[in-house]
Design a protein that fits this description.
Radius of gyration: 25 Å
Strand order of the largest sheet: 1-5-6-13-10-9-7-8
Strand content: 25-35%
Order of helices and strands: HEEHHEEHEEHEHEEEHEEEHEHEHEHEEH
Number of helices: 12
Number of domains: 2
Largest sheet: 8 strands, mixed
CATH superfamily of the largest domain: Bira Bifunctional Protein, Domain 2
Structural class: alpha+beta
Number of strands: 18
Helix content: 25-40%
CATH topology of the largest domain: BirA Bifunctional Protein, domain 2
Shape: elongated
């Protein structure tokens, strides 16, 4: 963070950016595999958009002051949903087109008071791993169940298996929509949780003004609970923006909409991720996956060859060109929590091999390069969901 350039704004340095890129690539791949399309939307929109969505009525204290452009007020987006709705409305949709699952890694801006800003955990600009599922009323329960299963699978793949659900119900004040619809939506969310066999607690009155929701809280390696995923029912936005689809009877009908933030904000997620792993990230997301350590300057050339071969296989490899002795270089790599340390000396160069020290302490001497490449290719491969 650079306070002189603005509080609550995060700068991603090269190693942090490498981890983020690995997580984003995994996120995109799995979303595409599970029937989502990826969207990109602007950072600002005209005031009418936020008036229609209700943000200027219900959320204005968390939005920044308008920008005047060509004598029209624009606002930095606090959420991505109105933009996704505009994309939906570009054409007539049929019930045969639904469900639509649209996801975006969208950067949003929310005004947080200076006193509540806290590291990566509470910021003013962040990237939300957002998704919107637009479906028919008949599809809603199955879609919520699918979102729940997908979210749990992602958390398990990231190394978080202790997950608890909270079912947030209609708030006492400010809720929109008929009570019957709230009851129906809450019952759908409850059934999805029960069908998945997930333990849950009621959060009475904890829903948003536009619908009930499921919050997923995870426990990190230290047993601390963090609220991360939100699966939010919404029957408000589709009415505000007059969203329709053509039903089987050839008449217009109103779709249902689910908002879903899986990791929450990437900034906050990384705050939790760093604490959970203590910096010793799984090999697939480690910023440096292998470091080549020549025992003397004479073996720098061989080190360059090894790193080139690793890089050609997509491995994030680094050559330690420092003047320190070998033991100091190994200690350095261990402190950096690099998964694989490759010691290169006369024997290794002669045999076209590497001597491997793993972060956990295991060692293997004189592993042929081809064998090591096949081994590390498996070790650094991102997980694949069922």
């Amino acid at each position: 963070m650079h306070e002189e350039a603005g509080a609550g704004l995060i700068y991603w340095h090269p190693k942090g950016a490498r981890i983020r890129l690995a997580v984003e690539d995994f996120w995109r791949r799995e979303h595409l595999r599970h029937g989502y399309e990826i969207l990109y939307t602007p950072h600002i929109g005209k005031s009418w958009l936020w008036e229609t969505s209700g943000h200027l009525g219900f959320y204005k204290e968390n939005m920044y002051a308008p920008l005047s452009i060509d004598e029209v007020d624009y606002y930095l987006k606090p959420m991505n949903c109105p933009f996704h709705i505009l994309i939906y409305k570009t054409q007539v949709r049929s019930y045969r087109d639904l469900p639509l699952r649209w996801a975006e890694l969208g950067t949003v801006y929310r005004y947080e008071r200076s006193g509540v800003l806290h590291g990566l955990m509470r910021v003013r600009g962040f990237t939300q791993d957002d998704a919107h599922i637009i479906c028919t009323p008949d599809q809603i329960e199955d879609e919520i169940l699918e979102v729940l299963r997908f979210s749990l699978a992602i958390w398990k793949a990231l190394g978080f298996e202790d997950v608890k659900a909270y079912l947030a119900t209609r708030p006492a004040k400010g809720a929109v929509g008929e009570p019957e619809r709230w009851e129906q939506a809450t019952a759908s969310l409850r059934r999805a949780i029960e069908r998945e066999g997930l333990s849950f607690a009621l959060d009475e009155g904890g829903g948003a003004f536009y619908g009930p929701k499921i919050d997923l809280k995870i426990k990190d390696a230290l047993g601390r609970e963090w609220q991360m995923t939100t699966i939010q029912f919404d029957f408000n936005m589709s009415e505000r923006f007059d969203m329709t689809f053509v039903g089987p009877d050839n008449r217009p009908a109103r779709p249902y909409m689910v908002h879903r933030a899986l990791l929450g904000s990437l900034e906050r997620f990384f705050g939790v991720l760093i604490e959970h792993y203590g910096g010793a990230f799984p090999a697939w997301m480690a910023p440096v996956q292998a470091v080549a350590i020549p025992v003397a300057p004479a073996f720098l050339g061989y080190g360059e060859e090894v790193v080139r071969e690793l890089a050609a296989r997509g491995v994030r490899a680094h050559l330690d060109r420092g003047d320190e002795r070998m033991n100091a270089k190994i200690r350095n790599a261990q402190n950096q929590k690099v998964p694989f340390m490759l010691v290169l000396g006369e024997k290794e160069q002669a045999a076209r091999a590497v001597s491997v020290r793993e972060r956990g302490g295991a060692q293997r001497a004189l592993v042929p390069i081809a064998e090591f490449l096949a081994w590390i290719d498996v070790e650094v491969r991102p997980p694949t969901l069922p």
